[in-house]
Here is the input.
Amino acid sequence: MQSQDINPREPQDENIVENKELNIWEALIPVFALVGMLAYNIYVYGDDALSGSNQFVLLLGAAVAAIVGFRNKVSYKQMLEEVAENVKSTTGALLILLMVGALAGTWLISGIIPTMIYYGLQLLSPKIFLAACVIICAIISIATGSSWTTSATVGIALVGIGETLGISLGMTAGAVLSGAYFGDKMSPLSDTTNLAPAMAGGELFSHIKYMAWTTIPTITITLIAFIIIGLNLDVSGSPDIQDKLTAIKGAFNISPLLFIVPVIVIIMIVKKTPPLIALLIGALLGGVTALIAQPDIVAKIAGADSLTFQSGYQGVMNALTVDTAVETSSKELNDLFTAGGMKGMLGTIWLIICAMVFGGVMDAIGALSRITNSLLKMATSVFGLFASTVASCLALNLTASDQYLALVVPGKMFKKAYEDKGLAPENLSRTLEDSGTVTSVLVPWNTCGAYHSKVLFGYAGATAYIPYAFFSIISPFMTLLFAAFSIKIKQLTAKPA
Here is the structure.
């Protein structure tokens, strides 16, 4: 822990900065307090915990850490300076989150996301129904950046179709969630995909590219497993999706030409365009495309009868910044065709800022370094560091019952440990996603597990899908396998002294 500069003319102040090192139990006091408060808060608020109460609990955890710091002669100024540095380090990630919200809004009203869904639904075939569920939900989740939205819309429809074919609810739900979490994990529109590199100190598109090394093999194994299961099932009937295809075409002008915008954004990413610029251009191109391809939708969002310069400006600006929705003739699809714009990202931004307050105070009092040093004594190898990260993420999903905290707390705790071993931040961010994001759905009392159970089965606590959620089960083992054999373990350009 760094001490403050001391003015030699004021020796009486020296006792303020001569801090004794925290022991492990003192360092863990704020962590235990935070986990306990979060567990109770989620018990009280359930899915609504992220609306603000979890964020305030993080601040309460920071207050507990500050009390520990005061007892060990750490000054308020030093804590505040560390918090400021922490928040400053996330500036790029926060701006990217805002641009992600803006892009999601214009890609909805332009018909880009509906077009992806329209063609994705046509992949259904009875004998490969389960594998098709994985692919469809992966496409939709990549397009929307949300496993929750995918599950609550197309997921419900696919479970219903599977039931008519005589396929168990658990199998279909497992396939739905496998695809949904693959897409959520790999989509630049996903809040967890933005959160993980923000915690690790990495960059969004570098994180996604590096994450593909463990994610692609995992989804491949998942698809093979569902193909084998599907070929051995006695499937009867054929899925009826015509009403949903008709609903999408009735609300949007669907055309393969709309894929031009995503292709342009992908090309910019491949050409190493800064992500903030690529997302901004993608959002603006989505707005221009909406004016050309969906003029009636733009006018309606602006509350006008026809498209004029003013209504066009207002409609696109609304899509960029606030909640927008496009209604179809299918009630199941209406929830899917909604976007929150930049406003929809404020909850995640709020969470990051509050997490940085907690992490900053923990840094300033020396608690994080004490905890990580203790863990590293038990995990002296690179594999041991990865294993400790995986275990911490799983433990947070089990105890704090929230996937965001399973990324935030271990991410903040292990960041310096990875740097000290000369490992690039992509290693930490990938491990956080492989073990924190995707395993949350395997815990019935976690917000994700409870939510998906409620949506797909009609009641919370259903566990029939867990044995078939292959993607979530395999992911942490895949990341440990890569670590054990030193496969794609990226080093820092220059190892810290």
Remarks:
- The chain has two domains: 20-74+354-484, 93-345.
- The chain is about 70% helix and 0% strand.
- The first strand starts at residue 324 and ends at 325.
